[in-house]
Amino acid sequence: MHKRPFAGLTALALAGGTLLGTAAPAQAADPTVLYVKQTATACSDTGPGTVEQPFCTIGAAAAVVTAGQTVDVGGGNYRERVTIANSGTPDQPIVFRSGSSNSNASLIGPTAGFAITSQHDIRIERFQATGSVAVPALDIRDASHIEVENGTFTVSDNATVPAVRLAGVTQSSLKRGYIGGRTLDAGVTMDAATTGVSLISLNLTGRTWYDSADRSVGVRVAGPGNTILNNTVDGFGGAAISVEAGATDTVVVNNQITGSFGYGIHNHGATGTAITNNTVKGHCLDGIRVDGTSAKVSVQNNLLAAYNPLNTNSCGPSASGRVELGIYDAAVGDTAVDYNNADDYYYYYYSSSPATYAWNGSRMGLSAFRAASGQAAHDLETGDPRDAYDSANSAAPGYQATDRVGRARADDPARPDTGAGPVTYADRGALETIRSPLARTNVTLDLAATSVNVNASSSEPGFVPIASYEFTFGDGTVVTQASPVVSHRYAQPGEYTVSTRVTGTDGRSGSRADLISVLPRTGTMGLLTLSGLRYVGPMANVPWPALGADHAKLDATGQFDLVDAGSGQVALFAPASGQYVTADSAGVESLSFKGTVVTPNQRFTLVRNADGTVSLKSASSGRYVTATANATTPLIANATTIGATQKFYRVNVADADRSLKARANNRFVTAESAGTKPLIANRTSVGPWERFDLVDLGNGQIGIFARADNRFVSADGKGTLPLIANRASVGAWERFTLIRNTDGTVSLKAAINSRYVTAESAGAKPLIANRTTIGTWEKFTLG
Q: What percent of the chain has a predicted confidence (pLDDT) above 70?
């Protein structure tokens, strides 16, 4: 599959180079336009080449086109090699253009491409040439003032010819196109007689895997005075860019080199090369290498970072000897090195002696390189990309006022200007970083109000302050305001996307999207662990939002809305945090509350056990949530079966922290002496001993959990003895039915003997379950 050519980038003016302007496209009625359209029924290679009777082949038009004429080629596949036999003039060039950017003409086959020999003033726009085997897809010889723009030129796999060959070419340019293929030769070759040629904003791609036999190069330069500017180069086994002996005064600037299996930039015997503001990352051999008889080379403002040298599968064993920047042989005499960032993360973290530089064959770190070479006074060995900001030398040879994508240099107010030259705030590397604002949000829900709250206060400004916040809520509502905080109520439950866009005073913006689930609640509850008789809530002794069982009572932070998540599953929503309880898919991380959208990680199956407890089975891991008796251990969904540590008592929030006032004497029931004595209705006010949580055991039954001692109330002796709060779990004696009487009171019926609890002797004696009917002594008011 071939990449689409680039389009729409403005050409950069270069000192010493000639870039011709784009010829104005001719109108269809212009008699100087020759048309080629192979699908036309009236096409003829012997015809006039008009709209009504176009040529069938591009070659037929190329044979007759003259200065000032344009060949307009319709979309489609043309199995031919086009030889352009005539020249234009500076004022009237010959132009070949494809029909449109959306329907480019493609030259296909083993000899597909364009050939130009001994001609001048020709422009080729928006063509593709693919599949060539033994000849270059673009072959230009002994020609001048040739412009090729927005084209795709590739050769077949393992071809031994370059995709583009320039021999004896002068004052010409290739711009904004795609060049490559898995050639064993090169993307572009420029021989010793080629001069004044610019390669601008091209995308050159070779192999996508390491091949020890591949010594191809992205761009091979052998002639003087050529420019390699604003290109991206990837995947060549020899070098991304190779500047060879005889190539004097070559400009290699603003290029992005990634994934090179060989050298990034190799200056091999060339004189006067300006290697400036390039970004070279992911190379297997030296990032920038200057060797042989190289002289007067400048290496400045470059960013370099390599592959992991330990990863021989990606690069081969030779990678272990490479450096980021190396100066060898005679080049040590006068090569200028400064203002580069040579970042080698893996050497720093996996080697006791990082060696990011080489000087005359010896590998070393930056400080040793400075001492040996007297160079690199402003170089840095750092992995922090911010160190490249506002720190380049704008007086370096070949420096451009704009970066690889045409952005002007910009001063980052958050960084000191540490560069040199007339512009002290230019960045190192191929791209000028112009920070747009970064949208950061804290999103919380309120399921009771079916609303969302978005707080974008933590958003980071770019170069200028944030001027506005735009919130799109996914239901058609859009709010734009100066404040970073907003709330919105939804008319109905559902899944929504909340988008937040922050815009600076310079018009630059950043955005993010948050998914939310505004789902219906079926109740609000707390979870009391069977293992430790503690409530689940956010843990105080861990630095992340983990859930644990370390709460002595059911407080607001331990309340969970039970949410219908569909398909018989539930989600647990924590109103205190405004987020859902989350379990990881592997069952290795603690439960936390950090999600606003219900995915499998937020879904659980609520299992009702035979003993009245409940268990939670994570939909993502398929495992049960565990709460150990150790209150310092977070909850985790890691159990394959249900045991004691996977069981919880469900306490509906409305039934927590209740009191019971006996109608018999209008006194409150107390777990006397912190629960060591039987329950009795003898208190005039409510304190800790008079508070109880009513546990939902299912099937209309409850357990009574005394806050006095965190024990369950039991109808002791199968109901023959007074009630006492002394049990660590619910059994048959600890089950009661709560009966709501018509007068607003309640009564308690012990499951063990089906008798009603009474405040014996008008409350003078302890409570006991021994009555068969409900009277005044058997009625209580819930407080």
A: 91
